[in-house]
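Recap for those who missed Tuesday's class. We walked through two folding examples back to back. For each one, the amino acid string is listed first and its predicted structure tokens come directly after. Nothing is annotated here on purpose, so try labeling regions yourself before you check the end of the notes.
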Amino acid sequence: MALALSIWNGWIWPFLKISIPVPVFALLIALGWWHFDKSSAVRQAVDKAVDKYTHVTELAAANAEIEELKRQKLAAFAAYAWLQVQIAARQVADAAAQKIQEQEDQKYAQALKAAGRDCTLDDYDLDRMRND
């Protein structure tokens, strides 16, 4: 117990007497400076400069966003035009394929008719057979 008391009185207590008041004192000085510096001309000039810089930065960000939206709009229009061309080409190709298929069907029907094996079923009969 005597050893603990001598360590406490010899090392710990003197250290605590110095180390606790120093940060508290520094904090009080900083708070006092912050409180009394509010009306300083330098502080007001810095605040105005920061406000101006903030507005300029926000304006630059808004302008950049507008430019990006314009770029995206142009890209969307280009993609739309390309898709319209692709759709038109696909429709032409589908129409040509449909025409070729109809011609082949007519040739096949004529070949069946020439061979005497033409189909007597109508569309109603064919649809009914598909649904069953």
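Example two. Treat it independently of the first, because the proteins are unrelated.
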Amino acid sequence: FFGLKSHDCHTLMQQLLPVAIRSVLEKPARYAITRLCFFFNAICAKTVDVSKLDKLEEDVVVTLCLLEKYFPPSFFDIMVHLVVHLVREVRLCGPVYFRWMYPLERYMKVLKGYVQNRTRPEGCIAERYIAEEAVEFCTQHLSDVSTVGVPSSQKMGVSKPLSGCTNTEEVLPYIEQHMIHIKTAYPKFRKRTKWQQDKHNSTFIQWLRFKVQSELEEDNHGVSENLRWLAVGPNMAVPLYRSYLIKGIKFNIKAQDDVRTTQNSGVYLLAQTMQVVSAKDKNPILSNMGFYGVIQEIWDLDYQKFTIPAFRCDWIDSS
């Protein structure tokens, strides 16, 4: 590995090392190392159960004895034997992450970057720290002014006038009315739930357009403006985006994530869907199911008065 810090090595030891040595070492040696990894994972957790500390202290003694059976004496310096006292420190001082030095070591790099005159490092750090503190304090009182050298937040001016949840709530009564209309118009299919759902999916948009139009002719105040534009439908010209910011959360398409080190193209959807036993099942059961997918395209549907983002995803087959 290249460029790893001490904290990265600690994480590798706690999480990945037990898996990495699974097919490399013999079972007795692998068992001893895995016990040591689990011990560090337990004492470095954000929450520590005090009632389990005595058991941890007993286990680490046995773990060190197992290590002495399979590793040479030169391996056991003072640092290895100090592991016995770590549980006592947790009992007296609390969780480890409040006391370790990793955040301070990272901040040392920031302080080193302040040094421009290497003959006076202390003065450079002090002056630069005071200058940055003053600038940050002033920018809090000048939030409406464009600053030089301080990038504006991506969350500014990106709030959408309408969300997909609001649209669903406005259309939900019409969905129920359309299902009743289908059962009334096709009485011989009243017991075939899957057929009714397929018919609803294929005819609902056109039915909603005529339904809203008839309600507007009868009572102009009974239909909200948002519902009018939803019934008309979006513009046929749909712009595509590689990234989209919604309520402070940034979503990327898969092609955008392929050239980056971060990943923002994965999505999770909890939806109510029909579950069938087989292809011949005519009465499926409605239940909530979780879907995992990857964003391939981001559409921005334009309804003249507002826009609604839509994701075209490749969904993972969880069956």
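Answers for example two:
The chain has four domains: 6-98, 103-141, 159-233, 235-319.
Residues 103-141 form one domain.
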